[in-house]
Amino acid sequence: MLAKDGLPEEGDLRAVMPDEKKLAAGPAAIIECWQEIPCDACARACPNYAILPMPNLYERPQVDFSRCRGCGVCLSACPGLAIFIADGSRSEGAVLRLPYEFLPLPQAGQRVAGLGRAGEVLGKFLVLDVTGANMRENPAVIFLLVPPDMAMRVRNISLEGA
Amino acid sequence: MTGGVRECDVLVIGGGPAGLCAALAAASCGVGVIMAERDGHLGGQLAKQTHKFFGSARQFGGERGFLIAQRLAAEAENAAGIEILTETPVLGIYEDGVATLLHRGGHMKVRPRKIVAACGAAENFLAFEGNDLPGVCSAGAAETLINAQGVLPGRRALMVGGGNVGLMVAYQLLQAGMEVPALINHAPQIDGYWVHAAKIRRSGVPILNSTTIKSAYGNGQVEGAIICEVDENRQPLPGTERRVECDLICLAVGLSPLNGLCQQAGAALAYIPELSGHVPVTDEYLRTSQEGLYAAGDAAGVEEAATAMEEGKIAGLSAAVALGYGGTAAQEALTEAAAELKRLREGPMSERIRRGLAVLRSEVIKC
After folding, report:
1. Exposed / middle / buried, residue A136 (Cβ in 10 Å: 0-12, 13-18, 19+)
2. Do B52 and A40 touch (CB under 8 A)?
3. A&B contacts, CB < 8 Å
4. Which of B201, B208, B351 would you mutate first to test chain A, the one with the most A CBs within 10 A?
5. B58 in A contact zone (CB under 8 Å)
């Protein structure tokens, strides 16, 4: 429960998910920002104006999925590490992009444990790519190949036992 | 200098986000500023905070804390008219308007025409058996050790406190390579932002609400803690005690405004729980009841770095305008900062702060 430990429930998630058609068409941003925080970092960062401007700074981000190209600039900008990119267009599975701020970073080609929102292990998944050249300023981004039904469940990785 | 007393337009006490913004705003009007910081570097708590901050572009929202600190410090170092004194605590403000500073082992006396108190806040402690054991420390101390000094204070840390400091520092301890067996929170729900809670949850840290620490145990140093559940009145529930093995217990149980200098200078204080304790009574220009003394940032009521920055600007500009500097540009900047501060505070997350400020501002009429 969100107020108890920040974990969303099904209904919370449904409200921020792109529809199946959008997910199948390519990458899109999933913004798991549940409170009206005075912050507009994502909306300012979006190069496609897909995150609606916030006349009131405290408004929750709203994604116009017809404009979102899943570029991931908002993922890097979000101070809450609350933005994930999911791409359901690949035949081999869904590609998730996760913000990550731990060292060591995994290597592309490595299989790592995928963790759910409560840190539970959901399986071992392939790391497709890692961008972490500028962790001083922004989180690294892990590109993880997961089964389609895991796209809304995996939110972290662990290298332990990898 | 007259009689060993230095004169200046504005003395800013504290080099954190509020103090830096106050000094920059005052100096931008042509005012001569002395900024005294007790630490060896500028930036206050921001200097050791690795997470990105919320906020709008004006407060560098979306940037990591230490980068915001570096940015503001560089601006102050390059600004004309700001003399920065680090490792210089302000000891007192006296009846004749002279402030004494401890600087390079001696007393420095300054007679400023205006003072901005941006002294910040201090972390609260908690009473429990064994809290004097080595290994019990504040969350801020642990943060300083891992992020500023590169020292790992332990291997396994129990975090006490469900506000943003507890959630954020728990995350930073994980980043430093420590284990966090649990974060305990005496309230039934977390007080910090849910996104910060989500970050430690997905790293596997349990958040135990309605739970408190009963005691710390260990032979000469912390070897563990006894925690227990609390009822709706936050009283310990007998029979719910359990042991958590850890070598560090971090306390993130709130902050109290550092109000000593304002009080000594003669400013009226008010007890406002929503602002975290006794704070100087201020008006919207952040003037205290003591002529020429302004207060900004956590010293004026514990809030966030973004609001501290805007408060700093308001206090610095108010002082400059009162001295006759800045003209219409300063008036406009003052209006802008006030509008931005209002914007930062108008959401539901700021309801408590708004309530506290309403009480505080009603005190202005009394003094």
Report:
1. exposed
2. no
3. 132
4. B201
5. no
pLDDT tens readout for residues A106-153: 999 999 999 999 999 999 999 999 999 899 999 999 999 999 999 999
CB-based contact B349 A32, cutoff 8 Å: no
Say which of A77, A79, A101 has its CB closest to residue B175.
A101
* Nearest CA distance, A23 vs chain B (angstrom): 23
Select from 3.10.20.580, 3.50.50.60, 1.20.1300.10, 3.90.1150.10 the CATH code of B125-251. 3.50.50.60
> Is there a common fold for B5-122+255-366 and B125-251?
yes
Q: What is the pLDDT of residues A14-58, one digit of tens each?
A: 999 999 899 899 999 999 999 999 999 999 999 999 999 999 999
What is the pTM assigned to this prediction? Answer: 0.96
HEC profile of chain A: CHHHHCCCCHHHHHHHCCCHHHHHHCEEEEECCCCCCCCCHHHHHCCCCCECCCCCCCCCCCECCCCCCCCCHHHHHCCCCCEEEEECCCCCCEEEEEEECCCCCCCCCCEEEEECCCCCEEEEEEEEEEECCCCCCCCEEEEEEECHHHCCCCCEEECCCC
Does B365 contact chain A (CB < 8 Å)? no
Q: Select from B199, B204, B348 the Cβ nearest to the Cβ of A81.
A: B199
Tell whether domain A9-84 is in CATH 3.30.70.20: yes
The domain spans of chain B are 5-122+255-366, 125-251
Q: What is the ipTM of this complex?
A: 0.97
* Nearest CA-CA distance, residue B305 and chain A, Å: 12
CB atoms within 10 A of CB B248: 25
C-beta of residue B168 within 8 angstroms of C-beta of residue B190? no
Q: Does B294 touch chain A (CB under 8 A)?
A: no
Task: Just give the CATH number of B5-122+255-366.
Answer: 3.50.50.60
Structure tokens, B154: 């332990």
Is B349's CB within 8 Å of A37's CB?
Answer: yes
The sign of the torsion formed by the CA atoms of A140, A143, A147, A152 equals positive
Selecting from A58, A115, A120 the residue whose C-beta is nearest the C-beta of B347 gives A58
**Domain spans of chain A?**
9-84, 90-162
